[in-house]
Amino acid sequence: MAGLVGIGKAGVWQIDVDEVDTTGESAWGLTVLHPQFSLQVPLSDLGVVRQLLTFLIEAEGNRESFVLGSALGGEVSIIRDEGALRFKLFNAERVGVGEFPGLLEVLCQESDTATFRDAVRDLIRDLS
Fold this sequence. Notes:
- By secondary structure, the chain is of the alpha+beta class.
- Helix content is 23%, strand content 45%.
- The chain has a single domain, classed as Transcriptional Co-activator pc4, Chain A (Roll).
- The protein starts with a strand and ends with a helix.
């Protein structure tokens, strides 16, 4: 059976976990919704959601990062950036013209950091 298994909301954020009917490694999909962007990442383990919350609570230093998973052939990371969060998709393996790596970064406002953490916490409550 496939479909929505959990949802977390806080502030401008919504985070969904869907069960994916697949024969591949990933059994779940994580969707992060923000007014400025949306992100979908396959998950092979729901424990990643708890690990993400731990990172959001404990990461204090600038440029600390958490690898959320992979999407579009690249690595998806969340990086602490002077109190704000930076979502980064980096693909060094499938380089483009002239050996130029694929890169996408979205920097969220510092005020979005606490509400993102709260949305992850809400998602974990819903998954329990």
